[in-house]
Amino acid sequence: MAELTIVGKPITRVDAQEKVTGEAVYGYDLVLPDMLYGKTVFSTRPHAKIKRIDTGKAREFPGVVAVITGKDAPWTHGESIKDKPFLAHDKVRYIGEPVAAVAAEDEDTAQAAAALIEVEYEDLPAYLSPEEACKPGALPIHEDFAGYRKSDFIVTAPLPNVCEHFKLRTGDVERGFRESDLVLEERYTLPTIQHAAMEPHSAHAQVDPASGRVTIWVANDAPFRALHEIAEALGLPLEKIRLINPLQGGGFGSKGGLKVEPIASALAYHTGGRPVRVKFNRQETFISTLTRHEAILYIKSGVKKSGSLCARQMTIYWGAGAYAEKSPTVCIRGSLPAPGPYRIPHVKVDGYAVYTNKPVSGAFRGYGIPQGAWACEQHMDELAKRLGMDPLELRLKNVFVDGDLAYWGEKLHSVGLKETLIKAAEAIEWGKDDISKSKIRSPNLKRGKGLACISKPTRTPTLSKAAVLIDASGGVTVLAGTVEIGQGCSTILSQVAAEELKVPLEKVRMAPLDTDVIPFDASTTSSRSTYHMGNAVRLAAIDVREKLAEMASPMLEAGKDDLSFADGKIHLKEQPQMALPIGEVVRRRLGASGFLRGDSSYTFEIGKDLDLETGHSEHASAFYMYATQAAEAEVDEETGRVRLLRMSAAHDVGKAINPLNCEGQIEGGLAMGIGSALHEHLVVDETGKVRNPSFLDYHLATSLDLPKMIPIIVECPEPEGPYGAKGLGEPGLAPTPAAIGNAVANALGIRIYDLPLSPERVYWAIRRMKKKVA
Amino acid sequence: MLRRFRLEEPETVKDASALLARYGEASRIYAGGTELLLAMKEGLIQYERLINVKKIPGLDRVELENGVVRIGALTTHRSLENDPLLRQQLPAFGQMERNIANVRVREMGTLGGNLCFAEPHADPGTLLMVLGAKLMAEKTSSKREIAAEQFFVDAYETCLEPDELLTEIRIPSTPRRAGVAYLKFGYLERPSVGLGLFLAWNGADTITEARVAVGCAGPKPRRVEESEGLLKGKTSKEASALLGRAGEIAGRAADAISDLHGAADYKQHIVGVLLKRAFQQILQDRSSKA
Amino acid sequence: MAEGTAKAEDRQFIPISFTLNGTTQQTQVEPHELLIDVIRNRFGLTGTKRSCDVQVCGACTVLVDGRPMSSCTTLAFEARGHEVLTIEGLAKNGKLHPLQAAFIEHGGFQCGFCTPGMILAAKALLDQNPEPNREEIIHFMEGNICRCTGYKKILESIVAAAKILRSPGR
C-alpha cells in the first residue's frame, strides 16, 4: 500500500466550525415555511382497550388544523414484525403509546388542544417483567401476533408473548458439564435504561396533495430503512417518499426505528399539504421513544481445574417492551456472543425476546453485548475465584486467538483480544494491589480491581453505496448515506476520499443526506460505517480517480499507468513537475460546470445468515471488534458508594483512521458505560409508569462522576477493512459495567448480580454479607 | 411551556405584601424562580400573577452587625458562595452554598426563594436550623422574627402568612469554641439526605451545646433534640462513643420516605453515617485550627 | 395562544431593551415568555439548545452580564437592561474565540448539541477564574452534561484555552 498521507492522522473534525459557533441546524431546530405544530396524546394505561376517544373539543379549538386518532392512521410498522400502529388502534400496550395527535398553528395551541382530547380505557392485566410475561398461561399482549407480517428469520416459541426465540446449539452441554471439575450457575439482571441523547426527538412531514408524495425530515440513523418501513406501511412505492436527514444531536441507537416519524406522517395527510412538525420534549422522549432492553440472564458453566472451559449454557430473557421494534435482532445478535469471546466446546443458548407492557426497547449502542457481558464477564471472575486463578490468567487461557473456531462455527482471524487484555490490565497496574490498597484513607474504604472483555459482531451482510464527485474547481463531494450522529463519520469518510485522491482535506465536502440523491446505505448502526462505508467511499474515490487518469492521459501525453496523484494534482510519475490540477482536467474535458463521478457498492460478500436451528454461520460478521476494559474502584462500605479511581479501555480497532476520533469514541463509550454501571435505571413502577422521565431523577454521568480514563488503541488489521479498519462506535460501553462489577467484587468479596451498582444496592449487599458472617 | 400570567413589580416590601393580600392564592412571590418556574412549566402549580420582588432595593446585602450575619432574602446562592464576609464568619454556610445544584441555579436562585419554596430536597434550611438562624418576615402592618426550626410546616409549606414576605436571614456568628458542618449524600440531581451539626464546647472539652438537624430525607428539615441531648455535656471522646445511638435516633427522626432517592431505611442509615462524619469533620477542623 | 389562568384581555406586554450579542434590541415580551424561546424564535438564534428543560443539562446556557443562566427557565423580561451573550456572539469578526478553537483542536465535542452551552459555561468560568485547577473546572462544569465525549477532551479543551487566554500579548 502506498504511504498514507491523511488516513491515520489525528485530524480535527470537518464539522467543527458550525458546531462551535452555534450555526449547526439540528432536526430539533428545523423550521419549515408555513409549518404547523404537532402535539401527541399518550396512553396513560399500560394495557387497556380503548373504549372511546372524544376529539370534539380539540377539533373546535381555535387554531387547530387537524386532530387524528388510530382510525385515521390504519397502518402498522415494525423492523421485522409489523406489530406497531402509527397511533394506537383498539388497544394500548404501554404508558406513553401515542393515541392521538393534533396539528395547530402554533405550539401552545397544539398543546392546549391535545389536553382536551378524552380517552376512555378498559384496563387489562399488565405484564411488567419479561420472565413473567412468557410464563405458560400468561395472557397475550398481542392477540393477533400470529397474523402479523414478519421477516423470514423470526423464530417463535410455544410460550406466550415471545416475539423471537434464538437458539445456539454447539456440542452437548450436558456432556460438557459431566466432564467438568466445577459447575457454576448464576442469574444476572440489567434494568431498562435510555440513550438520553442531548437532542430530544422530532420529525417533520409533508404530503404533496397533487402527487401524494411524502417528505419526512428526521434525524434518523437509518434513513433508507426508515424510508422502506414507512413506505411499506403506507403502501407507497419508494419513489413516492423522500427522507431528508438534518443534523443529529446524538443517537446511540435511539434515533433508529420509527418513533415520531409515524405520527408526523399521519398528521401530514390531514393538513392540506402544509408541513407539520412533531417534537417530543424530554419527558415524552423518555416515555415514548426507545429504551435499552432490560434483561435477565441465567448462566451455567462447567470448567476443568486447569481453567479450560468445557461447557456453557445461557437462557436470556430480553424485555422487548410493548412492541417488537428491533428486539428480534437484538435477541439474535446479543444472545449469539453472550457466552463470551472464549473457546468453549459445548454451548447452548436460548434467547427469548418477550413483550411486556413497558416502553419499547430498541437498538442501543452495543446491541445486546453489554447485557451478555454483565453476566458472562462477572461469571468468569466467579469461576476464577473458585479455581483459585487470577481472572486475567483465566481469560488469557480461554480467549479467542487467530485461527480459533468460534462456537458459532466461524474460523476467526485478526483477533486482537489478547493484546487488549494485556494492555488494559497493565494500564491499571494489574496485580499490584498492595500498593494501591496502602493508599486508602479510611478503614471504611475498600479498593479493588476488575476487568472484562468482549467481542462484538456487526450486522452482516449489509450494503453501502457511495459516490465521489470532482468538480472543475477541484472540489470533491462525497455522497454517502452514513449519518453524522456525532461519531465523526464525516471526518473519517472525508479522510478516506482525500487519501485516495490525494487532495487536501479542505477540498472535500460531504453532501447533505437526502434519500432523493444519496446512494443507498443500510444504516448508521452496528459500528458498521467505517468498515462498510469506508470501503464504499474508497472504491468510489478509486473509480473516479481511474476515470480522471484516463481523461488526463492525453492531456499529459502519457499512459494512464504513468500518472500519479499528489497535492490535488495529477502528474507524471517520472516528471512530477508535469502536472495538472485535477479540477483543470475536469474543466478541460467537461467544461466549467462539469463534474466527474465515481460510484461504488460494497458488501461483505461471503457474509451468511445464521442457521435458525443452530445459530451457526461460517461468516456471521464482516468483522469482529474486541475490547477489554479494566477498572480500579473504591467502595465506601458505610454508604455503598462506588467511586472509580481509574479505568483503562483497550480497543482493537483494526486501524485507527483518526486516532483523535477513536479516543473520543472510547472515552465517550466508557462514560456511558460507567453511567449504566453506577446510576442509570429507567424506573417503571408497578402501575407501568415511568417514575423518572427527567434529568432531575435519571442521572447521567457528569464530569464529577468520572475517573481518570486511559483509552488505548490496539491495531490488529482486518484485511478486508479500509486500510485495515474494523469498527469502534459501540464497544466502548459494553464491558464497562462488568469490569466495574468485578472491581467492586474484588474490593468487597461480594458479588452483586443486578445493575445499577447504586450506593443503596451495594450497601445492602454488604450488610447481608456481614450478617451472614456474623 | 408556561401558561400566561401577569407580572407585578412592587418596589417596596409593603407594596408586595399588599399585592399578596389583594390577590391571595392566585398570586405568588417570584424571586429567582428556579424551583417555581420548573413547577409551573410542569403544570404542577399555576398562578394568575407573579410578584417580582427583585425591584425592591436592599434585599440582597450581606452584613455583619453585632455578631449577627444578616443576609437579604434576595441574595443569590452564587453571591453567598463567593461572599468574603460569609467565608470568614460562616465558612460552613459558604461551603453549603457552593454545593447547591449547579452554577446556573446558584446564579439565579436566591436564599429567600429557596427557603420559601420549601422543596424537601433543599440544603439551606437544615443548616440554618443548627446555626440558630432567625428568619425575618414582614407584611404591610408588621414584622416578626421566626426561628428557622419553626419556619417549615410541611413539604412546600412554610409558616408564612399569605401576605407575608421573607426579607432577611439572620445568622449568629459561630463562637470561637464551636464548629459547624453540613454534609449531604445523594445520587440523583438532588440530595437524598442532608445533615447539619453544630457543636460548642468549653475549655475542658465538654460539649456545651449540640444541635443536629436532618433534611432531604423526609418532607421537611427538622432539629433532633434527642440526639442533641445525648451529645451535650459529654467530652468529645464520650460523645464519639454515642454517635451510633445519636445517629439512629436522628435517622428515625428524619421522617424518611421511600422514593427514587432511596428507601426510608437506607436514608435513615445514611443520616447516622453523616452524623458520625460531620462530628469527625468538626473535630478535625478544630485540631487543624489548634 | 396559551390557555392561561389570566384572562385574555389582561394580556400584558413588557417593553424591554437589552443587548444581544453586542447589539441593542428593543422588543416587547409577555411575562410568561422564556428567554430561550425569545432568543430562538424571535431572534432566530438556534445555537441555544433546549434539552432537559429542568436546568440540569446546561444545553440552554447563555451568559447574562457574563453569568451563566439556564435560558429554558429564565423569564425573558429578566433580560431587561442586561447584556445577553449566546454562542452566536462569541466569535468576533469571523475569528473564533480561543475556547471555540480549543474545543476543535482537542476534540471537545462530538454531536455538538451540548457544545454551545458547554463553551459559554467555560467562558464564564475563565472570565471569573483565569487559572482554574482541575477541581475548580469540574466543579464549575459539572452542571453541563455531554452524552458523547466522556468529558475528558472537554476538560482538556478548557485547560488549553485558559492557557492561551492567559498568554502575554492577548
Describe what this molecule looks like in 3D.
With 774 residues, chain A is an alpha+beta fold. Helix content of chain A is 26%, strand content 25%. Chain A has an 8-stranded mixed sheet. In chain A, strands 9-17-16-15-10 form a 5-stranded mixed sheet. Chain A has a 4-stranded mixed sheet with strand order 18-27-28-29, with helices on both faces. The longest helix of chain A has 27 residues. The radius of gyration of chain A is 27 Å and the shape is globular. Chain A starts with 15 loop residues before the first helix and ends with a helix. By secondary structure, chain B is of the alpha+beta class. In chain B, the strands form 4 sheets. In chain B, strands 4-5-10-6-7 form a 5-stranded antiparallel sheet. A 4-stranded antiparallel sheet of chain B has the order 11-12-13-14, sandwiched between helices. The radius of gyration of chain B is 19 Å and the shape is globular. The model of chain B has no long low-confidence stretch (mean pLDDT 97). Chain C is an alpha+beta fold and 170 residues long. In chain C, strands 2-1-5-3-4 form a 5-stranded mixed sheet, covered by helices on one side. In chain C, 58% of the residues are buried. The chains are: A alpha+beta (774), B alpha+beta (290), C alpha+beta (170).
- Share of helical residues of chain A: 25-40%
Q: Largest chain interface and its two residue counts? A: A-C, 59 and 55 residues
CATH architecture group name of the largest domain in chain C: Roll
Please describe the biggest sheet of chain A, giving its number of strands, its sense, and whether it closes into a barrel: 8 strands, mixed
- Tell me, what's the shape of chain C? globular
- Outline the low-pLDDT stretches of chain A: none
Strand order of the largest sheet of chain A: 3-7-1-14-11-12-13-22
Query: Order of strands in the sheet with the most strands of chain C?
Result: 2-1-5-3-4
Helix-strand sequence of chain C = EEHEEEHHHH
Distance between the first and last residues' Cα of chain C: 49 Å
Instruction: Write down the Rg of chain A.
Output: 27 Å
What is the top-level CATH class of the largest domain in chain C? Alpha Beta
List descriptors.
heterotrimer, B: alpha+beta, Uridine Diphospho-n-acetylenolpyruvylglucosamine Reductase, domain 2, Uridine Diphospho-n-acetylenolpyruvylglucosamine Reductase, domain 3, Enolase-like, domain 1, 3 domains, five-stranded antiparallel sheet, C: alpha+beta, Ubiquitin-like (UB roll), DNA polymerase, domain 1, five-stranded mixed sheet, 5 helices, 31% helix, globular
